[in-house]
Amino acid sequence: MGMRSEALATILELQKSYPKSKWNEDAKALEIEVRQSAGQHIEPERVNDEELKLMALNGLMQSDPERAIPIIERLLQSSSSDKLKDRALFVLSQSSSSQALQILARIAKNGPPEQRSRAVRYLGIMGGDRSRQVLADIYTSTTDVDLKKSILKSYMISGDRGRLLALARSEADPDLRAEAVMQLGVMGAREELSQLYSSESSIDVRKRIIQAMFIGGNSDKLAEIARNEPVLDLKVAAIRNLGLLGGERSGQSLISIYNSDSRPEVRKSVINSLFIQGNARALIDLARREKDLDLKKSIVSKLSLMRSKEATDYLMEYLRE
Q: How deeply is 16 buried, as exposed, middle or buried, from its count of CB atoms within 10 A (0-12, 13-18, 19+)?
């Protein structure tokens, strides 16, 4: 209601009359918020409670970043808790100040190990060309694989598809190349993943691309791979991930693959995928037509685990045969 003085008076009365009230912490937080919104400067160094200190820092960063940034620098170099330092880095990431970017960049490059990956993450949150370039510089200069993986995640957070795609193509370390692929999947980069699949030679990385397509929900490309991929391991991987996606279209694709490819490995993979989807009707249709006893047993086994009236009715029919 904008009645700041009345609010502060009520808070002070609460603290005085009920010093053990469970609402006192909330009242202190509200007091800081009210005072800062009224233009008063709250010195974060004089606030003892960590949550309140962060609130004061955040407010100061919004109103006077030149004063707030040196305080955050000292806090990061102090013996404060990891949680407080992590939140302080987050406060920096919310600033458009070049000084805030410089501090995050310095910590990401040369800071203590426990702060480096956090700084990298917050550079991703900060976004923008400058922070992305800092991440690129760190990536090329470090040999720390875990830090590089953190940078790949930050590229995803900042929406940098271009650098992720470039690394997915050119990174010499297969593990890092696969991580770049996974982050493209999280971003839903369907076209980029399709391009990568066509050009990638490593079977393991191509499996990661298939998994990334599942994460990105690219059922059309998965169905295409499941139909046409000549490498059996990759075909089975595509069938499995297509099954995990669910949906009527993927179910129809799986049935089509079952009918067109008689290899037991392929058909059993389709059976498992239809089971994962809970597609009892499709499994029953396959069971009725299947002449191979081993495959029919596999289908019946899956139906016996499904809590479905259709499945139960078919099992009763099967027992009467």
A: exposed
Q: What is the per-residue pLDDT across 203-220, written as a single tens digit (0 to 9) for each?
A: 999 999 999 999 998 999
78 in helix, strand or coil? coil
Domain closes at, from 202, 217, 232:
217
Range of the domain at 10: 1-17+27-39
Query: What is the count of structural domains for the chain?
Result: 3
Q: Which residue has the higher pLDDT, 311 or 162?
A: 162
| CA 107 – CA 103 distance, rounded (Å) | 6
Specify the pLDDT at position 59: 66
Q: How far apart are CA 192 and CA 186, in angstroms?
A: 12
- CA separation (Å) from 282 to 40, 299, 310? 69, 10, 11
Query: Higher confidence at residue 74 or residue 107?
Result: 107
Domain assignment of residue 244, yes or no: yes
Residues 253 and 315 occupy one common structural domain: yes
Residue 165 lies in a domain: yes
Q: Which residues contact 212 (CB under 8 A, 6 or more apart)?
A: 181, 182, 184, 185, 186, 193
Q: Are 167 and 156 in contact (CB under 8 A)?
A: no
Q: What is the CATH number of the domain that holds 279?
A: 1.25.10.10
